[in-house]
Write a structure and sequence with these properties.
- By secondary structure, the chain is an alpha/beta fold.
- The chain has nine helices and eight strands.
- The termini are close together.
- The protein binds 2-phosphoglycolic acid.
Amino acid sequence: MVNKLIVANWKMNGSAAGLADYVRALADLPLVICPPAPLLPLAAGLMKDTALKLGAQDCHAEPAGAFTGDVSASLIHELGAQYVIVGHSERRRGHGESDAFIWRKAGLASAVGMVPILCVGEREGEDTAAVVAAQLQGLSAFEGKELVVAYEPLWAISAAGTGRMPTPAEVKEIHLTIKVILEKTLPNIRTSVIYGGSVKAENALFILGEKAVDGVLVGAASLDSAQMVGIYQASIEAQVGQ
Ligand code: PGA
């Protein structure tokens, strides 16, 4: 039985005031929590001696320099982040990030000692396999020990407002496609493929019940610690027999 990876992406939500209660409620669970960057030092302190792991939502593709408002991979690692999300669709769209820029972020994050969580996924109507293959093709140069790929169809992210998700069978199919690509391009690196897009306690078991789903990236529902407990419980239930 391999533990599934459950990642909370708070996005631009949450506050310092609510963090202590949140951490206390989840302290015993092996979840990755990605709060906004300014909360990283506080979160790292609160998470000390808990089962929780800290992640960041983004880092820059350059190690340091004149990039006002950006945050370097080495700084977030120094603040305690073990994981960092790169290439989230909200950054690709809102900040014009290219695939090449995102692959560099993943490499740099790994070089400083973090596990990158690289997001891929199609827009409504696009050819999923073709989009995902293009978003992964530059990873052949990736050096590091571990990489997580998060498959997030843009239309299924709760903020998109469609109220729809792919079926577990559809998720399984694209995850297997991604795994084949990763085995070919990164044969010596530990890789896993997680799903993101409208995951909540109520539907987590359907998605995590697929063996090809190594975990979930949770946005809106992750702000509620009770939801995270429910998703974790679903992951334990799903793992039995996988
Ligand atoms: P959601 O977000 O769970 O709110 O759909 C997932 C994500 O964008 O990472």
